[in-house]
Amino acid sequence: MGVFKRLRDLTMASINDLLDKAEDPVKMLNQFLRDMEADIQEAEIAVAKQIAIEKKFKQQYEEALEMVQKREEQALKALEAGNEDLARRALQDKKEHQTRHDEVKVQFDTAKTNADRLRNQLSEMKDEFGKMKNKKDLLIARAEAAKAQKQINQAMSGFGTDNAAKGFDRMSEKVLQLEAEAEASNELRSKDRSLDDELNALSKNDGVDDELAALRARLAAKKQPEA
Q: Taking the model in full, what pTM does it have?
């Protein structure tokens, strides 16, 4: 059956072989198991048919054996009864059943040998299938880890390249230029404010000077002699 070749291929395959030969090792492993299950089902049907043949031949040779024993007993009873002719016919029929028994026994032995062989092969298939199911989880985990590592490596392959480095350098220069322009603009604005403040201070009057002048006038008036 084809299952044995698939079992051998899967048992001998390494995860790297699977990655090289299939786009998706997980799907490949699951397909292997599905194929194995289908082959096991076919093998079970074949084994059941062979067992049925074995049982049929067993029943036939056992029935022939029973007739051999029965005719021998009947021949003895007929002879005891003095009926030699009946005893002779019973022995003749016994001989025919004995011949059939011997022929069917050979067929039964062959059928049993075939059935036993198929039983053993089916048992081996089921054992191997169980091992593969247990191994599948490990292989899938390794395949997923390998795929993840490959994706990470591909994603990181662009890091640190000349284009990326040059791009960062250009952006750094651009930021420095913007900072310099902002600083220059701030200095110009500070100078303009200082000039305006000095000019505004000349004309600024908060009322204190007026009050001071009024007080001076009152003091001068007191010092003048009365007429």
A: 0.51
